[in-house]
């Protein structure tokens, strides 16, 4: 093919790609009623981490019950996939069909399909239900996968403009439980659920549209103080006051804030403060969340906080047990290529994205951060028609509203369109992978930055595997 012919072919593919994106959006619109019912079913039955049995049943039945025709293969659904309330649904597209002239020619073995994953969350919060809108996350993941599947199926009947080397594609929907607690995605990573996936997609409800927000690293710690009971009025000198230790630890951390970086976060509660005022408490318990923008900074913050806990025990004569959560949430690594493409697609759908200046504002933490260290992906945010704040009763109401449906399905369309760009735009997948590699190297301090001369790819892999 001559250079000008190659350019014409590329231009034609670009035009058809926009048409394929419209097909994806139309497929999502056609399924909007059943997708809305799925979201409402999950919203109406809020379940805590690892207890999402109703949501699990609703989602797996949804994929297993989707209509099948002579030109449409069924989803392969695996219930209780590696975790009791996790699931996996797979569907495969075979890629560009061979021309009649090629069918009689010997062809080399086909490369493995491009594996694209869409992630669903569906656990709720204690007392206030779906105040983080995970019912909408589940709906968006399912809708985006259906949109992509519909567009690819349409190409079987209308292959005009399809690149000759269009890859086979395997679309995977992963149901990932317990984001609000221990982090089901971390367990699924360890179990191999993300092995061999090439790119993953998900979107989280918020107060604005954003291709990326700086979700930060988090460590959870429980601290237990053991003292000695005594009569608080008759002979207090015989006691060792565990509540004093807890209060001292709390105050130590409050004083530490003077020397903490503005981007660090420490917040906690005293869960057990004694049983009666005239009994010196012999046992207290605190629970704290520690957050920082990076794993390296989180490690420093953890050490400082631990010293505060130990100092309180030393001052009161109590014994202390520090129970560190085995699973840290990692900060989410950005992927600028995916973010750029998602914004381009979102703007075509009417999304109004926040300015880059707002990306300095810190948000919460998510186990998607751990996923972002092992596979390229995007964790976007979308407006749901309300200014209510996440983790409030008002947001619970907003997440179950009819108005939220329009915005959730719009986010799903943007994800499906972005997936089509990854499949059919030349070099996009390699750029996504290169962004992932360089960002991970930079995060772990292996790029040539001042004071650092490391540069080995092997080091990063070893370090990530040990977390």
From TrEMBL:
Coiled-coil ranges per UniProt: none
Gene Ontology cellular-component terms listed: nucleoplasm
Pfam family, one: M20_dimer
NCBIfam families according to UniProt: amidohydrolases (TIGR01891)
Domain Peptidase M20 dimerisation: 221-314
Family that this chain belongs to: Belongs to the peptidase M20A family.
Single GO biological process annotation from the record: proteolysis
Region (Disordered): 447-467
Organism for this UniProt entry: Pseudonaja textilis (Eastern brown snake)
Protein name: Peptidase M20 domain containing 2
Family annotation (InterPro entries): Amidohydrolase, Bact_exopeptidase_dim_dom, Peptidase_M20, Peptidase_M20/M20A_hydrolases, Peptidase_M20_dimer, Xaa-Arg_dipeptidase
GO molecular function, one term: dipeptidase activity
């Amino acid at each position: 093919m001559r250079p000008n012919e190659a350019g014409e072919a590329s231009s034609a593919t670009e035009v058809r790609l926009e048409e394929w994106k419209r097909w994806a959006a139309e497929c999502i619109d056609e399924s909007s009623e059943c997708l809305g019912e799925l979201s409402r079913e999950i919203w109406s039955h809020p379940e805590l981490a690892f207890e999402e049995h109703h949501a699990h049943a609703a989602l797996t039945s949804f994929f297993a019950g989707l209509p099948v025709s002579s030109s449409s293969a069924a989803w392969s659904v695996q219930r209780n996939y590696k975790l009791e309330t996790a699931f996996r649904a797979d569907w495969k597209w075979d890629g560009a069909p061979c021309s009649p002239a090629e069918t009689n020619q010997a062809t080399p073995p086909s490369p493995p399909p491009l594996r694209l994953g869409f992630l669903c969350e569906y656990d709720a919060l204690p007392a206030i239900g779906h105040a983080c809108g995970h019912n909408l996350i589940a709906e968006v993941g399912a809708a985006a996968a259906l949109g992509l599947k519909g567009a690819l199926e349409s190409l079987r009947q209308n292959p005009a403009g399809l690149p000759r080397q269009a890859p086979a594609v395997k679309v995977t929907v992963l149901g990932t439980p317990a984001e609000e607690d221990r982090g089901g995605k971390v367990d699924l990573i360890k179990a191999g659920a993300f092995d061999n996936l090439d790119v993953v997609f998900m979107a989280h409800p918020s107060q604005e549209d954003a291709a990326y927000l700086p979700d930060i690293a988090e460590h959870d710690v429980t601290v237990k103080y053991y003292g000695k009971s005594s009569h608080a009025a008759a002979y207090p000198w015989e006691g060792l006051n565990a509540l004093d230790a807890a209060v001292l630890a709390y105050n130590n951390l409050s004083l530490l804030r003077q020397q903490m970086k503005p981007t660090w976060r420490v917040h906690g509660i005293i869960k057990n403060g004694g049983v009666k005022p005239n009994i010196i408490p012999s046992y207290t318990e605190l629970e704290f969340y520690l957050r920082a923008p990076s794993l390296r900074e989180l490690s420093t913050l953890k050490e400082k906080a631990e010293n505060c806990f130990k100092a309180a025990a030393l001052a009161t004569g109590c014994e202390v047990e520090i129970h560190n959560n085995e699973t840290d949430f990692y900060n989410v690594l950005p992927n600028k290529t995916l973010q750029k493409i998602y914004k381009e697609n979102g703007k075509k759908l009417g999304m109004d994205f926040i300015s880059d200046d707002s990306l300095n504002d810190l948000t919460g933490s998510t186990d998607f951060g751990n996923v972002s260290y092992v596979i390229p992906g995007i964790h976007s945010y979308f407006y749901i028609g309300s200014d209510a704040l996440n983790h409030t009763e008002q947001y619970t109401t907003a997440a179950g509203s009819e108005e939220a449906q329009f915005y959730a399905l719009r986010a799903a369309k943007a994800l499906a369109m972005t997936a089509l760009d990854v499949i059919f735009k030349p070099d996009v997948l390699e750029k996504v992978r290169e962004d992932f590699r360089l960002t991970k190297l930079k995060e772990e301090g292996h790029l040539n930055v001042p004071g650092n001369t490391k540069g080995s790819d092997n080091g990063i892999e070893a370090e990530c595997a040990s977390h």
